[in-house]
Amino acid sequence: MTAQELITSIRRYIGQLAMPYESIRTDREVYGSTTTTFSDDDLLARITVAIQDIIRRCKAIDFPNLILRHSGTYLNAKSLSERIFQGRVERHDGTKYVNALRIDPMEYRSMVMSGRTPTAEYPVYTYRDGDIKIYPTPDTGSSSFRFFSVSNTTEILSLETVIPLDERFRRAMVLHVAASCYATMKKMEESNYIMSLFEDEIYPYRIDIIYNPMDGIESRSE
Amino acid sequence: MAILENYIADVRRVINEKSLTEDVVSDADILLNFASTVSDDDITERLKDGVNYVLSRVQADVIPSFIIDVFPSDLDIPYVSTKKIIRFLSDTAQLSDGTVAVRRTKKTHRRLSEPITDETPVYILEDFDLKIYGDTENPVGSKIKAVKVSTSSSDIVGLGLQFKNILVNYAAASCLETAKEFGLSRILREAVTREISKYIIPSLIPSSE
Predict the structure, then answer these.
(1) What is the DSSP secondary-structure string of B3-50?
(2) Residue A216 has pLDDT above 60, yes or no
(3) CA A127 to mean position of chain CA atoms
(4) Cys-Cys crosslink for A149: which of A29, A81, A207, B169, Cβ 3.0 to 4.6 Å?
């Protein structure tokens, strides 16, 4: 599904014609019509917001195209990621990647104090304030450890851009954008109602727990 | 035999509308008449959204034609598989010979030292990661079942007649929202919720009910 197709759906939903003039790029340029017609550019921006909202609130398993794998470059990953998969931090032991267990920094401290140390076979990692530390400390190099995260990069630049979310979220995206358009039109009641439809639409895909960005736990219970 | 036209005609009945003339292919062609007339394409799109709405909420045994096999390699990242999954069916992980594997969390798997054999296979499904242990014969043949996403309008009819009312009401509610008839839309939405509750996945029933 491309951004153009999604915009067609949105216009259908809010019952609006496309703007007839190429030169009109934002609503404000249409005299006397500031809140009744939305340009493609305007809708593209609203689609981006809708996608980010969905990514923030739904399980990553529902948008696999947005899952990233990072190798040893955590700082870069931070700016690209909404949250990491805490169960998928892996240390390279020389021949293969071994899954590391997350422990609390204090727990690690008391572990070391009591004379126990993690091994290459059973590595551990701590994760606090956006920092991953893996023990035993891996060798330097891009493949020394890897982890997975959910991308937050959803910048939509053109109508031809393929939307990273698939068909099951089309209706949710349409509703989110429609609610936002209605809000712009100062029709708050309608906007609220459509937002409640959006909530209903994403209900089966929601993350069950509350989390902070970049510090969340991704889990799915069936 | 149900066909898509029947569904569209039913939606028009619910929202009390005549169909468009042949010349008019989309809503945008009707100047200043938006929100009062809905094209066939438009209704089909709303019905298609309804299919995924149903698939994401009902129990798998009423939608057998939407169940697919997913192999661990299908989840390798970067994700290039064309399989689009609504949800996994957790109790259906199998080894290549059909032996059922038991689900375990990553945490438990690390803590338990019980050996995994062909007779006591386990699988882990967390963080978009599927691992099935115990298949020494054919590890790549281990699989789990999942509900797939609908991408085609043929799925509207393919979903089965028991869901026709739900789809029609869902699409009609959506049309009424476009027509700014939110009160009527709400009534149809409630009808959708009521009807789908017969098939709904237990964990999706709101706790207040």
Answers:
(1) -HHHHHHHHHHHHT-PPPPTT--SGGGSTT-TTT---HHHHHHHHHHH
(2) no
(3) 20
(4) A81
Answer yes or no: is pLDDT of B24 > 70.
no
Structure tokens at B181: 């008839």
State ipTM.
0.79
Q: Does B42 touch chain A (CB under 8 A)?
A: yes
Q: Which amino acid is at A157?
A: L
Q: Both tokens of residue A154?
A: 């959803």
Q: How far apart are CA B126 and CA B71, in angstroms?
A: 14
Query: d(Cα A205, Cα B110) in Å, to the nearest integer?
Result: 28
Instruction: Tell me what pLDDT residue B188 has.
Output: 92
- End-to-end, the C-alpha distance of chain A in Å comes to 28
How deeply is A81 buried, as exposed, middle or buried, from its count of CB atoms within 10 A (0-12, 13-18, 19+)? buried
When CB atoms are compared, the residue of A15, A62, A221 closest to B178 is A15
Nearest residue of B to residue A217, measured between CA atoms: B127
Residues 82-141 of A with CB under 8 A from B: 85-88, 99, 101, 122
- Mean pLDDT, chain B, whole residue set: 80
Q: From the CA of B127, how many Å to the nearest CA of chain A?
A: 6
* Least CB–CB distance from B151: residue in A167, A194, A204: A167
Chain A interface includes B126 (CB < 8 A): yes
Q: Which of A99, A105, A135 is nearest to A119 (CA)?
A: A135
Rounded Cα distance between A31 and B141, Å, is 63
B 151-180 residues with CB < 8 A to A: 151, 174, 177-180
